Amino acid sequence: MMEKLDKKYQDELDTLKSAIQDSELLAVYLEDEEEASYQALRDEFEPQIEALYERVADNHPLQLTILETALLDPDFEGLYLSRVLGFSVLRGEIDDEYHYRRPQDHFKEVLLAIADSSNFEWIKVKIGQGCQIGFALSSEIWVSNLINQVENKKVRHFFETMIIDKYRSLPARKQAYESYYRQFLQHNYHSADFPKTVSELKTLFSALEKFIQYRIKNGKVNMSLLPNFKEFLNNEAFKKEEEYLRMLVLFSRYFPHESHEEWIKQTFNDARTNFPDFNEKYFGYVLEIEEKGLPLDKDSDLNVLTLLDTSVEDDVLRYSKLIQSIHHKGYIHEDAIEATRNFYENHAGLSDINESLRQTLYRQFEKLLKNLPVEDYKVFTGQDHKKSEEEAAKDDSISRFMKLYMDIFSNQEFNLQLRDLSMSFLQRCLKAFTDKRSAQYQDVKHFVTDKFPDWGFMKEKEVVELFKTRRKRKTGKA
């Protein structure tokens, strides 16, 4: 169910509509009906429409569809509809075959409004690719029924030419969709519907989840969605469904808790005790969203910790306390290291909870190395790669703690992640230290030669090849 457009947005729309109808530019266009005159109208008013659209998208994204519907009013003269069409094409959820999971009624509504526009002749030059992709993602019957609703023969013929035979092939359809999708990466058009019933939950949740994840990844978390979250998480019919836990994790980890802290505390702790296999599913989903680009960081970890009823002794509590120690004391602190070792050894090595712990530690190293200037390479390698036991104990280099956690975890995937991270930093060093006689180059070379084969990052032959001095071929005499 669409939200009603806020009055402030509706008032601004009405003002824009009046400005368009009263403008001299429209009068000129109606007089000569030339493309240049219509383009002048576009240039003047579409940026204003887009500015309003972006504010709604940022602050009240659930109102986007109703805003787009309002723009179909003929008094807007078809302005911005080519962009709205693209949004409606891309907002629809697709399956692995690159077909829509459900018929796209809003896409249809936009297309029919464009078809009926008195300015179709100029709008059509900007909607070809959108029509092609939307038709390719839709069923043939759906497209045929839509085109049959178009009364104007020229418009109907135009739509018929937008059915591209090669897009019947999955590879071609996929390539075309992804190319079109990339054109809209800088636009925030994402919206979704919150389900009210279990049947709606099963059909709408996937798109809703992607929408929420998009907001989190792109720093667009705001509390306009709070009433919808509350209604969802208070729905008794949802509380044993997997989708419920997923929504609870997203909200509890990434949304602010001020003004509703007691409610979310009770909701989260009720789920800890009543949701079947809560701990296993919690960590399984945490890993899933981490793979999709949502951060396992200090803020999200501590956001959960503040909610926990400490009388419930479960893995979520134990894990959260450990993560708090790592974030508070630092991953190099002896207490944090020992706590990590004890926690890890008390859980199965390949369990989701241990994988979550590994990824949290990996992100610590990733943040450090990706932001480390090559001039500070000794922060990574240490002051001297050859150390006595006493000196080694005082070593606080990144590499020392990498090896320490590699030994604790004994996990090949974790080691490979650190290898790739280290190799990336090494390549940056070699690109910067081009003088092979320099102290910097020699330090890096000695460190890599000494450590990388031992850690399984490189074979000795690969190290030799990497640092081999290649002689320049002499040019022959003429």
Task: Name a few traits of the molecule.
ARM-type_fold, 26 helices, globular, 3 domains, mainly alpha, 478 residues
Briefly say what this structure is.
This protein is mainly alpha-helical and about 475 residues long. The protein has helices at about 5-20, 25-30, 35-60, 65-70, 80-90, 105-115, 120-125, 130-135, 140-150, 155-160, 170-180, 200-215, 225-235, 240-255, 260-275, 280-290, 300-305, 315-330, 335-345, 350-370, 375-380, 390-395, 400-410, 410-430, 440-455, 460-465.
Describe the structure.
InterPro entries: ARM-type_fold. This protein is mainly alpha-helical and 478 residues long. It folds into 3 domains: 7-182, no CATH class; 198-367, no CATH class; 372-467, no CATH class. It has helices spanning 7-22, 24-32, 35-59, 64-70, 81-91, 105-116, 120-123, 128-137, 140-148, 153-161, 170-182, 198-217, 226-233, 242-254, 261-274, 278-291, 298-305, 315-329, 334-345, 352-370, 377-381, 389-394, 398-409, 412-432, 439-455, 460-467. Helix 14 crosses helix 16 (278-291), helix 18 packs antiparallel against helix 19 (334-345) and helix 20 (352-370) runs parallel beside helix 24. It starts with 6 loop residues before the first helix and ends in an 11-residue tail after the last helix. The model has no long low-confidence stretch (mean pLDDT 94).
